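Researcher: Structure for this, please.
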Amino acid sequence: MKNNKNFYIVLLILLLVVLFSCKKEPSKISFSGKAQGTFYNITYFDKKNRNFQKAIDSILDEFNLTASMYEPQSILSRINNNDTSVILNEDFISIFNIANEVSEKTNGAFDVTVCPLVNAWGFGFKNIENVDSNLINNLRKYVGYKMIWIKNKKFYKKYPEIQIDFNAIAQGYSVDKIANFLEKQNITNYIVEIGGEVKANGKKPDNSSWIVGIDKPDDNIGYQHNLKAKVKLDNMSVATSGNYRKYYIKNGIKYSHTIDPTTGYPVNHSLLSASVFHKSCTIADAYATAFMVMGIKKTIEFLKSHPELEAYLIYANDKGNTKTFITKGLCSILIEENSSKD
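Model: Predicted structure, token format:
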């Protein structure tokens, strides 16, 4: 009996060894590439050790044929060229509907028809024109999200001069598309970043969180990334917009790339950057742009009545000192901060 007992103990130990040895840790898959005139970085964990870079590149290339202003045959370019034969796909309609919703909620601070003004001020793909009040007043006739609409998968605009630009929302939408693709492959622990817009889900195998940084708004550091804060992300996206990198100085005047659709001029206020958090990177991307148009005071008031959004705002106070405004929901995921709050 004793020998039999020892035999079963040994057998149980062997079975446990086999079971634990068969438990496969998920593989870490990381890769980078180019998309939409910028770069993407993707990391995920997969027990099947699958690399989806080719599939993701294909998704992003196909999306360019929907929303790129630099692809002559994209749906967006054909609409801007007044091609009335275009049949809209699901991606275009989805982006349009989200953009329109954000435009409505922000009273036009976010507006995809701002393209002619962006070009006039030298931040589009055309040369800088001799900007004066007459030019701006003329272009403003063709800016307004209420002058475009969709019906039966066809795009309509009030004037042929109206041009649309999805740059302030397309990267966020691309992030969501890639995240949705990964989830369809049963990959639930990932981080996707395209041009600085990020979505993360789940955790790493050691149960640690995905961590992303928020840059200091310093226009004297080139393209270095000095961090203002770090946050933990899980089933959350973050998109950042700021005026501290993309600008030019002419005749001693600094012109930011954020154009106010209602005035036609570059914004001139104290808000330096807006990082917006939401489950949808598309929505976060659009609101980040809208907040840069609205400025610090209007944005803080807006956030009070929109608890679905979290935000980390960096601005300059009356004395020129850098300050931050942080919504309460971020306190639980903010792990480091190097700033002063008001």
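Researcher: Any notable elements?
Model: The chain has one domain: 29-337. The chain has a mean pLDDT of 87.
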